[in-house]
Write a structure and sequence with these properties.
The protein is built from 22 helices and 32 strands. By secondary structure, it is an alpha+beta fold.
């Protein structure tokens, strides 16, 4: 196992002394009245809060080894000076690492180095050295994926801080607020924020339900920042409805008319009435018991951040319709930020007209969330709304066209063939959960659903006005907040192009931007053993939302990437893309750096017999295996590079330039990049190391400790990138060109961005094919394709 910590703030000795005194681990006179061993023992006993007697203290010290042969008690009795070996042998045990399993008791320093735990070593230990090393120890992560201070927090060490006056909170340690807020006294309240739209055509401005969980201290004058998660799922989903209207993808691609214009999506009323204000209240009239929560938010809540959830328009107990990523949906979430900042009104309920203000909020808002949640954080950020100081967008869509379409093709998010914007709108239209409300809005919603089904245009797959309204990239220059992006390099749901385009756009902005790339698919990473992600966010939000001068921007890396070869290894970079590129040429089923003189055309047939076709439609994973093994080119063309002499790091967006002809007047080309080589690779999904093993606070919230591990079995290949394009959209996704049967055309196809290490001995492989059974339409047409290799290139960005 390897520890990777990026949230430890550098501090001087005086700060360490002051902070240890502030959390009551150190008394002012102890630096001058105690010996180093006595001081060390005092600190040890104070973090072992389970003991309440001298006998139990002695028993605990006697259970820990100070040397391979002596317990702490026995070692202290010999009056030996402190050594590096003694300090860190005890430290490893306190951090829950196990002798003989995780480290050798005969070589604790080697164990610290092997696990990558931070250390301060000294030749002759003084009291100041004890203080500095113990301070660092409190910030060091344990075997169970939390730093020692957080582990002590989960054991109840800081419950005494609950009773501190509001004026003395939050309590900071190492640049981050500690858990000094009592979760048993959290205030849970509901308000209804008024928007500037009427998306359900009832003549009144839509109200949006907002659920808030905040510390009781905010009723005693403390103003706290808000961490807001915009989640259209939180009020429930219509999974069965979504299944019923999922689109049939077993249909052929068709020839496009270059002059075809797709329908516009429905317009919403421009005039409506605002709600009448009939009074004002300091307290909400409605509460809630629980709501689906992101465990990072749970972690932050006891550290003084108010946690806010809203599902937006078209959800249970809110007004409006579900519009799937539209400007209206964005504005409904923006309205919540405006209310938190003090720029918009909200009501205690839906009908009384009693206004309520967020008097408890300091006006600073951060947004968190994965997938649709992170997407809306990105969308709200592009409005430039005042008060939004930072977002953490995880696996977020930056352009909905890149989610449901690609280069003129209808495209499925990985694992969801047949889903589209209308399907997702139906699934998240949770007003159905209130039967009477749904009956009143049913006809209006059905009409709107027909409108967006037409406007999304599955007929052509072209980029149009519907998708333009859901593309946030053109508005990136409006972003005023700082942005942290988190994305999986193997996320075939929200594909990496979404984060790469956002990241690239932000590099020209004055805002601080951070990027974390992991080896997962569509997942959260806040419960990984190898990475202090929650602490990183706490440090970052302390700076952005509490306005604490903790140098978070300088401490946190600009680009952090999880290695795809070595488990539990994270590396820092200054940017995503490499500084160089390598051009490879296609020849005789090979990839070569030498440009060929003349190469025969390569042909493959996209049609399958009925049995194979239906089997692959039912089990797309079987098609994917067959594609990798189709080396004789029955339905694909394979080009394989020579085995590498040394590791090769691919960084950025690969581009395929290909000359191709279809035997029909329409067609598509798909491509996959493959890391070909026998190896034990990382697991596809994180492995649960300890169910509910990560305690987020004292008697408040747990998460499963997870980590990627090497697979037990060897595999021969791994797909690392892919791309697809309609041959009639060879110039751009909104422009349709004509295509004649057997006409060779030149196509430039950007593939999904990569950050991948090809190991020495492995080979880079390019597979060119047509139908992608996992993502594209699957018409099984009798179409053959020809590739002219001498006019093809694969451009690979690298170090």
């Amino acid at each position: 196992m390897k520890n990777n910590q990026f949230a430890i703030a550098p501090t001087d000795h005086e700060t360490r002394v002051a902070e240890l005194q502030r959390i009551r681990l150190l008394q002012p006179d102890e630096l001058t009245t105690l010996t180093p061993n006595e001081l060390w023992t005092k600190l040890l006993l104070r973090i072992h809060i389970a003991d309440h007697s001298q006998a139990l203290d002695h028993e605990w010290l006697n259970s820990l080894l100070a040397t391979p042969d002596l317990s702490i008690t026995d070692w202290l009795s010999q009056s030996q000076p402190m050594t590096n070996e003694v300090f860190y042998l005890v430290a490893l045990q306190i951090l829950q690492f196990e002798p003989a399993i995780d480290f050798s008791i005969h070589a604790p320093i080697d164990g610290m180095n092997k696990i990558q735990l931070p250390m301060e070593q000294h030749e002759q230990w003084t009291n100041n050295d004890i203080i500095d090393a113990f301070y660092l120890l409190l910030n060091t992560r344990t075997k169970l994926g939390q730093n020692l201070l957080d582990r002590l927090t989960s054991q109840g060490m800081f419950t005494w801080t609950y009773s501190l006056p509001a004026s003395e909170k939050p309590l900071y340690f190492n640049g981050k607020p500690i858990a000094s807020f009592d979760p048993d006294r959290f205030i849970r309240e509901v308000v209804y924020v008024e928007t500037d739209m009427d998306t359900d055509y009832d003549g009144m401005a839509d109200l949006v339900k907002v659920e808030i969980m905040r510390p009781a201290d905010t009723n005693n004058g403390l103003k706290v920042p808000a961490v807001f998660t915009a989640s259209p799922y939180n009020q429930g989903t219509n999974d069965k409805w979504g299944e019923e209207i999922t689109h049939n993808v077993n249909v052929p691609l068709t020839h496009k008319d270059p002059h075809y214009q797709s329908p516009n999506e429905p317009d919403f009323p421009m005039s409506y009435q605002k709600h009448q204000v009939n009074g004002e209240s300091q307290t909400a009239s409605e509460s809630f018991s629980s709501t689906p929560a992101y465990t990072l938010n749970t972690y932050l809540s006891v550290r003084g951040y108010a946690i806010v959830y809203a599902s937006g328009i078209g959800t249970k107990n809110s007004d409006g319709l579900q519009t799937c990523g539209s400007p209206e949906q964005t504005d409904s979430m923006k309205a919540v930020v405006e209310w938190l900042h003090g720029d918009r009104r909200a009501f205690t309920d839906r009908t009384s007209g009693i206004e309520i203000h967020a008097t408890w909020c300091n006006g600073n808002v951060g947004m968190t969330g994965r997938s649709y949640l992170g997407t809306l954080a990105t969308a709200v950020a592009t409005t430039g709304v005042p008060g939004l100081k930072a977002i953490v967008s995880e696996a977020a869509i930056s352009n909905w066209y890149d989610y449901y379409r690609e280069n003129g093709l209808v495209m499925a998010p990985g694992g969801f063939q047949g889903e589209d914007a209308d399907v997702l709108a139906a699934e998240t239209f949770s007003r159905t959960k209130s039967p009477a409300d749904y009956r009143r809005i049913e006809k209006t919603n059905n009409k709107y659903m027909k409108g967006i089904e037409a406007a999304e245009d599955r007929l052509t797959g072209n980029y149009n006005g519907f998708w333009s309204h859901r593309n946030y990239i053109p508005n990136v220059d409006n972003i005023k907040c700082d942005v942290m992006m988190v994305h999986g390099l193997n996320d075939w749901n929200v594909k990496p192009v979404n984060v790469k385009n956002l990241y690239d756009s932000l590099q020209e902005m004055p805002n601080t931007s951070k990027l974390i790339l992991h080896q997962g698919q569509h997942i959260y990473i806040n419960a990984f053993r190898s990475l202090d992600f929650s602490e990183m966010i706490n440090l970052w939000f302390a700076n952005k939302l509490w306005d604490l001068d903790n140098n978070a921007d300088e401490i946190l890396p600009d680009v952090l990437v999880q290695d795809n070869v070595q488990p539990e290894t994270w590396r820092t970079y200054t940017n995503w893309s490499g500084n160089h590129s390598t051009t490879l040429f296609l020849t005789d089923n090979a990839l070569t750096p030498t440009e060929p003189n003349s190469v025969s055309a390569v042909e493959f047939d996209d049609h399958q017999d009925d049995k194979t076709y239906h089997a692959w439609c039912d089990q797309q994973s079987e098609w994917a295996k067959a594609l990798l093994n189709d080396m004789d080119g029955k339905f694909s063309a394979h080009f394989v590079g020579t085995p590498l002499d040394q590791d090769w790091v691919l960084r950025g967006t690969p581009t395929l330039k290909v000359r191709v002809a279809s035997s029909a007047d329409h067609g598509l080309i798909s491509a996959r990049l493959v890391d070909r080589g026998r190896a034990k690779r990382l697991t596809i999904s994180p492995v649960i190391l300890a169910k509910d093993g990560l305690e987020l606070a004292y008697h408040f919230g747990k998460d499963d400790l997870r980590e990627f591990e090497l697979q037990k079995q060897f595999t021969d290949a791994k797909v690392i990138s892919y791309g697809h394009i309609n041959l009639q959209n060879r110039h751009d996704a909104s422009t349709v060109d004509d295509l004649k049967a057997n006409q060779f055309v030149d196509v430039e196809l950007p593939l999904q961005p990569v950050f991948h290490t090809l190991k020495a001995g492995h080979q880079l492989e390019l597979i060119i094919y047509a139908t992608d059974y996992e993502m594209t339409l699957r018409g099984n047409e009798a179409i053959s394709y020809q590739i002219a290799p001498e006019h093809c290139q694969l451009i690979i960005p690298n170090n």
